[in-house]
């Protein structure tokens, strides 16, 4: 009860919240320092892995005013982990210098990357690397200076280099996770990755490779280190930046644990940590690239969808204008029939009634077009039904028989009975079929004896429908640009929508649409017989 | 042949060629109730097949039809030496089509859905044109006066607009911004007294080629 009451107060009281945050930060900082306080360099407290500065920098990025807390954390950690220092003045100077450097790094990162959607592109990553490595180098110099280390130059430079490596690797591995976790839009990606079995498989692989690397003698550590890169690269490629940062943290932890168990010499661990920094940067770069690509693909899909919607709207506007023209003509006719004479003779009255009938049937026709429009824009593939494909094909063929006949083209369809029904939006697939048939008929009409053949067959877990004509066909050069949204579609009767739109519709159904070069036009589209291709949101409830 | 023809085609018949049955039927009904003699055809091919050199009046043709388009029909009639005035109607009006129609001496280019009065006005204009064969109309004089008031840049934009180029293309062609093209376009329309691009095309093309 007391705990519950505390949390209730916590939600209401802003000052209490800040105090809780301060306490959590201080505890986290001390614990991280304590956990990573391994293999200190003799005399100086320089360790090969310092994740705690990342915590400090992340906090300072959220508010400069927290600098006192960062300093207090440094002092508390010093006292808690290493006791009263032998050189109190030097230690105090070091904590002040480090607090200020962390604050400077936080400011630089805020200016270059910001807190909203960090690591959006390679530029962000480049700045992050530059700021973090320069900041840690400054920390290293200030630390050595504060303790006024005596000794030969090589020893001093060695100490600086090690401090630098320890801080850099700590920041590079830990700070991205903290920044991504703090960003609401990216946090979800971390959670999704952690829930995925594939990511845990890469983590398991990391454990196996750590065993391989460390089960042998020290001479083999560097020989096999590259193995650790494989699962990290895999996770980056599969899950983007979220996978990259999580795998790097996991590998880093594994590396430290394995090094402790293998009683590794601290010099070797420093060198391995330098490799770890390089591996982490590679993984981050890969992750950022994968995210960038995924974003570009999503944007492309979106713009294709827009283009398709635009084409659909244009086609439907064309269809709508026909009944509207008729309505306005009939209305004018009514005016003429009804106006003028005071009395309507029976012949005129009958004529008026029939015109009014035509008027209402045209209004109905316009309404049907509007309904189709609404069906289409009821986004994507949500109105899925389990429909036999042959019925949809028959309907589309029937709709084009007259048209083909007028152009002197014969239309055949050869669809075997017993094909499994498909989860499709029949209206949208009909749009695809009509478009393909209209194109094929027009292309076949170019030569005498034109023929268009439709077929469908089961191929594995898909049904492949093909539309072939004996027209001039498509050559290999134009095959690539055939589906570009910008390519003006062949003049199509009825629903004049382009191939790019057909492809968008088929892909929204988890299928594929493609053309083959050669004599005669050959277009194919495959639709899955199960619902594996669909997005989870579109998948119909069983 | 899906067509209906009055038994005696007198001098003043409105020939309607449209592949949409409702449009054909409603237009024919509306015009006949206003006192016009009409004949309807479901395709350009049907019309050409039935066509006689002595036919006179006015032809209303849709552009987008299965088979031969209205613009192709217009060209075919010209090549046969027919002087039948043509009114082009379309649900898919674009500048290139309008330009082509006016270059082939169309009386008007009307976008569907249209007001019945627009068609009637076009038919009357066709009649007037027949009565006065040389079309040195007032419009062309007025438009050339208006054209003289255009700036050089506006004239360049006008030239590209009536060729059917899109704003973005004109912007790259002239090396100016998209927005600047929009502004020039608005000014050109205003100075020329045109409500839309189709009217603009008519104003620019009409003085050409007395038939």
Overview of this protein structure:
The complex is a heterodimer of chains A (542) and B (211). Chain A contains 17 helices and seven strands. Chain A is an alpha+beta fold. In chain A, strand 4 and strand 5 form a beta hairpin. In chain A, helix 3 crosses helix 5, helix 6 crosses helix 7 and helix 14 packs parallel to helix 15. The two termini of chain A are 44 Å apart. Chain B has a six-stranded mixed sheet, sandwiched between helices. In chain B, strand 5, helix 4 and strand 6 form a beta-alpha-beta unit. In chain B, helix 8 crosses helix 9. Chain B is elongated and about 50 Å long. Chains A and B meet through helix 12 and helix 13 of A and helix 1 of B.
Helices, strands, pairings?
The complex is a heterodimer of chains A (542) and B (211).
Chain A: H1 2-12, H2 14-35, H3 52-62, H4 67-82, H5 88-112, H6 122-146, H7 153-182, H8 184-195, H9 197-214, H10 221-224, H11 229-261, H12 266-338, H13 346-377, E1 385-387, H14 389-406, E2 409-414, E3 422-424, H15 426-444, E4 450-459, E5 462-469, H16 476-479, H17 499-508, E6 512-516, E7 522-528
Helix pairs in contact in A: 1-2, 2-3, 2-4, 3-5, 3-7, 4-5, 5-6, 6-7, 7-11, 7-12, 8-11, 9-11, 11-12, 12-13, 12-17, 14-15, 15-17
Chain B: E1 3-4, E2 13-17, H1 21-33, E3 37-41, H2 44-50, E4 57-62, H3 70-79, E5 86-90, H4 95-103, E6 108-111, H5 116-131, H6 138-148, H7 152-162, H8 167-174, H9 178-192, H10 197-205
Parallel strand pairs in B: 2-3, 2-4, 4-5, 5-6
Antiparallel strand pairs in B: 1-3
Query: What's the order of the H and E elements of chain B?
Result: EEHEHEHEHEHHHHHH
Regarding quaternary structure, how should these chains be classified? heterodimer
CATH class of the largest domain in chain B: Alpha Beta
Specify the CATH class of the domain at 14-182 in chain A. Mainly Alpha
Structural class of chain B: alpha/beta
Helix and strand run of chain A: HHHHHHHHHHHHHEHEEHEEHHEE
Q: What is Rg of chain B?
A: 18 Å
């Amino acid at each position: 009860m007391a705990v519950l009451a505390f949390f209730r107060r916590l939600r209401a009281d802003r000052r209490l919240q800040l105090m809780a945050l301060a306490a959590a930060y201080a505890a986290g900082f001390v614990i991280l320092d304590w956990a990573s306080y391994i293999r200190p360099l003799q005399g100086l407290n320089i360790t090969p892995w310092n994740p705690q500065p990342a915590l400090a920098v992340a906090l300072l990025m959220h508010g400069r005013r927290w600098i006192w807390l960062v300093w207090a954390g440094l002092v508390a950690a010093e006292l808690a982990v290493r006791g009263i220092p032998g050189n109190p003045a030097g230690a105090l100077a070091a904590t002040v210098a480090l607090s200020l450097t962390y604050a400077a790094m936080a400011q630089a990162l805020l200016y270059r990357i910001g807190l909203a959607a960090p690591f959006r592109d390679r530029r962000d990553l480049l700045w992050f690397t530059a700021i973090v490595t320069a900041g840690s180098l400054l920390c290293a110099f200030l630390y050595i200076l504060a303790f006024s280390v005596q000794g030969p130059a090589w020893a001093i430079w060695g100490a600086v280099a090690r401090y630098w490596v320890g801080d850099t690797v700590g920041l590079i591995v830990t700070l991205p996770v903290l920044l991504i976790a703090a960003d609401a839009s990216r946090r979800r990606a971390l959670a999704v990755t952690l829930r995925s079995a594939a990511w845990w498989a890469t983590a398991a692989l990391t454990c196996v490779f750590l065993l391989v690397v460390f089960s042998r003698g020290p001479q083999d550590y560097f020989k096999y280190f590259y193995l650790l890169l494989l699962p990290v690269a895999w996770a980056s490629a599969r899950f983007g930046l979220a996978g990259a940062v999580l795998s790097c943290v996991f590998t880093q932890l594994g590396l430290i644990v394995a090094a402790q168990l293998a009683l590794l010499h601290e010099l070797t661990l420093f060198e391995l940590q330098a490799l770890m920094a390089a591996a982490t940067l590679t993984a981050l770069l890969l992750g950022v690239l994968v995210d960038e690509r995924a974003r570009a693909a999503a944007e492309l899909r979106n713009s294709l969808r827009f283009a398709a919607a635009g084409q659909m709207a244009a086609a439907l506007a064309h269809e709508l204008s026909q009944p509207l023209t008729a309505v306005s003509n009939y209305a004018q006719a009514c005016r003429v029939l009804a106006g003028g004479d005071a009395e309507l003779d029976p012949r005129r009255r009958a004529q008026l009634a029939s015109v009014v009938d035509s008027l209402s049937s045209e209004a109905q026709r316009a309404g049907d077009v509007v309904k189709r429009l609404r069906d289409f824009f009821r986004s994507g593939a949500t109105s899925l039904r389990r429909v036999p494909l042959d019925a949809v094909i028959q309907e589309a063929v029937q709709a084009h028989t007259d048209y083909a006949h007028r152009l002197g083209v014969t239309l055949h369809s050869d669809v075997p009975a017993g094909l499994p029904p498909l989860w499709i939006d029949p209206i949208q697939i009909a749009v695809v079929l009509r478009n393909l048939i209209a194109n094929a008929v027009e292309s076949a009409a170019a030569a005498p004896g034109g023929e268009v053949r439709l077929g469908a067959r089961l191929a594995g877990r898909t049904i492949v429908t093909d539309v072939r004509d004996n027209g001039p066909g498509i050559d290999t050069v134009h095959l690539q640009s055939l589906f570009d949204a910008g390519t003006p579609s062949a003049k199509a009767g009825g629903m004049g929508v382009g191939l790019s739109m057909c492809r968008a519709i088929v892909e929204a159904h988890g299928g594929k649409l493609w053309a083959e070069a050669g004599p005669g036009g050959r277009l194919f589209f495959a639709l899955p017989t199960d619902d594996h291709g669909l997005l989870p949101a579109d998948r119909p409830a069983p | 042949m899906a067509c209906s023809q009055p038994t005696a085609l007198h001098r003043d018949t409105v020939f309607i060629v449209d592949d949409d049955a409702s449009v054909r039927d409603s237009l024919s009904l509306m015009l006949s109730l206003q006192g016009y003699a009409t004949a309807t055809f479901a395709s350009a091919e049907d019309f050409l097949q039935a066509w006689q050199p002595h036919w006179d009046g006015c032809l209303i043709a849709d552009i987008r039809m299965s088979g031969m388009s209205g613009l192709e029909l217009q060209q075919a009639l010209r090549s046969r030496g027919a002087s039948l005035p043509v009114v082009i109607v379309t649900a898919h009006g674009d500048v290139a089509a309008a330009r082509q129609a006016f270059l082939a001496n169309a009386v008007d280019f009307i976008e569907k859905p249209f007001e019945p009065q627009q068609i009637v006005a076009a038919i009357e204009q066709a009649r007037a044109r027949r009565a006065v064969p040389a079309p040195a109309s007032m419009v062309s004089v007025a438009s050339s006066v208006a054209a003289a008031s255009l700036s050089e840049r506006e004239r360049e934009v006008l030239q590209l607009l009536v060729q059917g180029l899109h704003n973005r293309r004109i912007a790259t062609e002239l090396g100016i911004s998209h927005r600047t093209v929009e502004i020039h376009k608005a000014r050109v329309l205003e100075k020329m007294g045109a409500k839309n691009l189709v009217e603009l095309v008519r104003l620019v093309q009409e003085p050409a080629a007395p038939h």
